[in-house]
């Protein structure tokens, strides 16, 4: 469990990126922070592993203040996946994945073996282990990024728009893969995105953010969809445009789901 | 040509002297520039000052510098140390800016990722930033190498013997073969040094060649078949 208590982050230039933010992030579930660019998502995420230090307030993991822990040790115990994979370009795939275990003092052979198994977990062929990151496609790089995030077997996995830079088909694959991995591993995932569809797809909880990390609404996707708290939320989730107002039409004997404009979006099973 | 054949021993020994005088300034220049370039890159205030000073150093004419150094260092006029120190100053002048640029060329995302993985500041520098700055550092080092090898000859004017001696002596005694052999030997050293540096770069930075291979041979996307481990 991760808890933010009235956390504020003011950068040296005076920007208040996060203003008195409070949230409880439950363990072993996926919590998605969703909001437009500049709403403070990255800052919130990076405060959890102390890449960004809070200005005031308190952040706890399992009831213990993260400010009582050594920041480097803290980071080694938390997985982090970022948008452009952030892989070390001068290390082979296998070494990228094995780095954190090695930093944690795991033996070279064990780290390597663990890294190979993680490539399986994220659906990458082991033959890619000796490639450099630049020799992989964008989607493959993101998979390596996820494998690396999982390498130290952390309880917490932070993901900052990890699928934002890949094409829609690969993104859909990666999303399904993450759902499967989460079903197997049950990590506490904090996932940041600006894509509301991605948030509803992946999140057990969704936290909708406005500027300054102000929470517009939090709840399960169903709760938010069924009862948008205000106009901001309604606009953000597309309810105002009727995009979410689906109805069923029978076409060729099958139930086709259409949106408010009559455009088909799926088939009812 | 005759002159070269008859004096090969002299040319060879001067070549070795030239190499011995050129190597220390190249290495010292690289090592000294590393912390200076780091500071220049790290703090905006020091950047302007350091880069200006190092830029000015390079504009000091070499002959007066070589003549002034014995007085400053308390060395003998003919001491080769004068040449080594003088050339080190030029090497630093060239390398500080290059080192600052090299460190600045490292992708900020990569540095953030390294921090997120749990590298501490010091190990992040040596294990991530320094190697990734390598290609730009190497480019600077190649310039320093060529410049140093050719500048060593100027030491001959103040009496520190090197291949420059062949040039001076050949001109005085009107022996074109001697002048040309001095020039050719200097060129050969410069080329050999450059090849060595490029070789070291390939050895230490294999990933830079992986990039190039990629452009020729696209890596096939692995199908989304899932192998689940227990
Ligand atoms: N290092 C920084 N210095 C100053 N302002 C920053 C810094 N990082 C982020 N900000 C500002 O804080 C706000 C929130 O940024 P960020 O957390 O990156 O938002 P998001 O990830 O939601 O796009 C933005 O206005 C951004 O410009
Ligand atoms: Mg962001």
Name its key features:
heterodimer, A: 269 residues, alpha/beta, Rossmann fold, 2 domains, six-stranded mixed sheet, four-stranded antiparallel sheet, 9 helices, 13 strands, 33% helix, 28% strand, globular, B: 230 residues, mainly alpha, 10 helices, disordered C terminus, binds adenosine-5'-diphosphate, binds magnesium ion
Structure in words:
The complex is a heterodimer of chains A (269) and B (230). With 269 residues, chain A is α/β, with parallel strands linked by helices. Chain A folds into 2 domains: 235 residues, Rossmann fold (3-Layer(aba) Sandwich), CATH 3.40.50.300; 31 residues, no CATH class. Helices cover 33% and strands 28% of the residues of chain A. Chain A is built from 9 helices and 13 strands. A 6-stranded mixed sheet of chain A has the order 6-7-8-3-9-10, sandwiched between helices. A 4-stranded antiparallel sheet of chain A has the order 2-1-4-5, with helices on one face. Chain A is globular. The two termini of chain A are 37 Å apart. The mean pLDDT of chain A is 94. With 230 residues, chain B is mainly α. Chain B is 80% helix and 0% strand. Chain B has 10 helices and no strands. The radius of gyration of chain B is 23 Å and the shape is globular. Chains A and B meet through helix 2, helix 3, helix 4, helix 5 and helix 6 of A and helix 6, helix 7 and helix 10 of B. Magnesium ion (MG) binds next to helix 1 of chain A.
